[in-house]
Amino acid sequence: MLFCACILWQCARQSQPAGGPKDIDPPVLLTSVPANGQKNFSGKNIVLQFDEYVKLKDAKEEIIITPSPGPNTKFLVKKKSVTIVPEKNWNLNTTYSIAFRNGIQDLNEGNPAEDLHLAFSTGATIDSLSIKGYITETFKEKPPEKLLVALYQQDTFDIFKHRPIYFTKTDKQGRFSINNLKEGKYYIYAFEDRNKNTKVDSKTESFGYLTEPIQIPEKKDSVHIPLIRIDMRKLKLTSIRNTSTISIIRFNKPLDSIKIWGSKQKFLYTHGDKSSEINVVKNFPKEDSLKLLVHAVDSVRNVVDTTVYVKYSDGKLPDTKYKTGEWNITINPVTYQFDAKMTMSKILKTMNLDSIYFQLDTSRYQSVSQKEFSFDTLIRQISFKTKLNLDPKEKKPRPVLLVGKSAFISIDQDSSKSQDVKIQIPNVEETGIVSVEIATKSKNFEVNMVSVDNKILYKFRDEKKHTFTYVKPAEYKIIITVDENNNGRWDAGDFYKKIPPEKVVIYKTIENKYSFPVRANWEVGPLLITF
Q1: Which secondary-structure segment (H or E) carries 485?
Q2: In contact, 51 and 18? CB cutoff 8 Å
Q3: Tens of pLDDT, residues 69-119
Q4: What CATH code is assigned to 129-227?
């Protein structure tokens, strides 16, 4: 009999009888210690009693206590009760707010307790002020959800090193609310917190911040935090690898620009397989080492100025084939101005111009000249600009760029394959028109009309009115970047220097859509964009 009792005791588990109608009602809180709104609470644990059996669901993430009593706070469930055991003692004369979100659910169907919040104070008063707002992700339309939104008050606080005391999470619409705050000055920021350490890891996590503090009570109805994805770590040179042909200089993050110079000895340098690598091609005597001065800049304008020595070694790299990419071509359908770019896998050494020409029609050809080409060694990109000698009376010209075999010879003496590139010239009947009007006080901005996969197809700068012509039928979006410092690029700001990211605006239609169609022989607009 004792043996049977032990078996029955080991198999017992928290459950309710099966059968009956489906439970659609969420659990209801009957009592709590402390009670909601209670003052002068001096107990240790928080105990909540519900009207039915409950379970916990991701309690450490869903149940948010501010100020935090510690990351190792425990959440325990037994039948109809939930107990919270704080890691640290509750601070004196402090108001605590608990948002349970979806952390407590009924046992059978998983219905979460609705709008369950608890506020109490260890002092004689309960703070009742709050901050509300919303998050958007820069260059994206969909609002981010389940982001951590946090507050701090000390100027020395570092979002990349320190953990916040006051925080909450956004809902599916990117909205948030932090309640039961006392009057004062707060700084606010938001981040993904993928690794659950409540600190910003800019290498892998999106984040956003406001450079100016918020004075509580806040005059604004809503606070907006734009989210960015940028690596804020300090730029560092991590290693140098010497081989028999090149030296590879590696950094800890991608570079925005780099300049390398040295003695009178000749050398070339280019990006490696990653934009965080620089390959120095050796053209100097093998018995020498080469002293180089390096000036590297990352995307947040961090700078590394250093000296390195490169030399020959016996190490060899695997042989790689010489490859040329696809031509990115634009052509003006009125003037026939031709612009094209193409990236190569190796540095270009020479060109065979006799192997490059245009076939304008079945009987006419156009040759090219050296001055029409330029080559960017760093990114291994060739640019080609010329004007096609087409007959304007011809309704539908179909020229072809013919690139013969061995037209391009790499620095390793291997040659390119042949390419036949058809050039599509749009006409009025096959394209549309999009007109745009800008209402803004900003002097410097760039308007980009992009494809649905965010590839820039058409753009203009610093104009209040503009018309895009010969637009190919497709679905488009308009993204505007404000260039406050007029440096010709969008800047992500700097948390340490209290510089905010430059503003980004995504056009939204009257139907609250972020894209719009362009059809053949249609005119869209004028689209009025205010920022």
Answers
A1: none
A2: no
A3: 988 999 999 999 999 999 999 999 999 999 898 899 999 889 999 878 999
A4: 2.60.40.1120
